[in-house]
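Tutorial handout. Part one gives the primary structure; part two gives the three-dimensional structure as tokens.
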Amino acid sequence: MRNFSNAKRIVIKIGTNILTKDSGVDTAYVRRVAKQISELLKAGRQVIIVSSGAIGMGRGQLGPADKIKDIKMRQAYAAIGQPLLMAEWRKSFLRYGVTVAQVLLTAEVLNHRKTYLNLRNSIETLLKLSVVPVLNENDSVSTDEIGSAFGDNDTLSALVASKIDADMLIMLSDIDALYDKDPRKSADANAIAAVYEITNEIMRSAGGRGSGLGTGGMKTKIEAAKIAADAGCRMVLANGRIKNVVGRIMAGEEIGTVFMPRRKLSNRSRWILNNAATGVINIDEGAIRAVKNHKSLLPSGVVSVKGTFEAGAVVMLNDNAKAVTNLSSSQLKALAGKHSSEIRKALGPKHRDVIAIPEDIVFLDY
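Part two.
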């Protein structure tokens, strides 16, 4: 369970509250982390960093302020702070002869198959060159509320770990571990060493968001663990301020909570599962049974269609599966409940006569 000797590719996510100090970057801490990661590189491992802290650094440049709620101000702080953050990572790693690369992401990059594959190829090339990619959400151009797309980089780190086939995700936070109760409210709360299944009870007890600078919390960390689990990737949540925390975790010490995977989906299945659905296809019980038995989804099983989407989009099937549809929403509405043969009659002989093939359907539950 805590034997990570075979973990070659590791994603390390570092939270805002760990990286920042007095509204600026904690330079000494960044150097310590760089040293720990350089030791992993010497041992032949590959490391990707998902780094928060840009908004906090930008805020520090412009003076103290209350909680940053205005999205335009958060975007401005991120634009100011991101190059400063990268400069700290670069200086710290240069002490150990390691080159770093900046990669800024938005949700749209991961949701579109072509840009996602380009991103994957880029990261693969950097890793082959022994470069450490430093990833962050591109807050200064994000179209959604900052943090809503990825959850203070918690979700982003898990998506990255999933999409590049990482063996392990280490999430360094100011949270020590997952507890059986809220330790802020219950003195008898106990840390949980290992989680084998993320139950509804665990999700309910996770609570809400985090600090004014960061937007994550235990809930986003558990959601991240679920994403990692679908990739067969173990995740360790630990307090990032523990001395030599990365090295000690990799050595198998019982630090924080380890979340164990229960299945490993194919790369394409993970992309479908983690993609934002653009609509819903409601199907009947017969169609649900068919797709669960690895059969194609046919128009005869469609009850209704919600949303507007094109062919090739990822959509929900009821509320328990996602699929890549071969038909647009307008086509589906016209063909719902009809026999497959009527697809080619209506759309032409070269058109596929199924809505989605088994390889393009992924259920949300195990």
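Part three, for discussion. The mean pLDDT is 87. The first strand starts at residue 9 and ends at 14.
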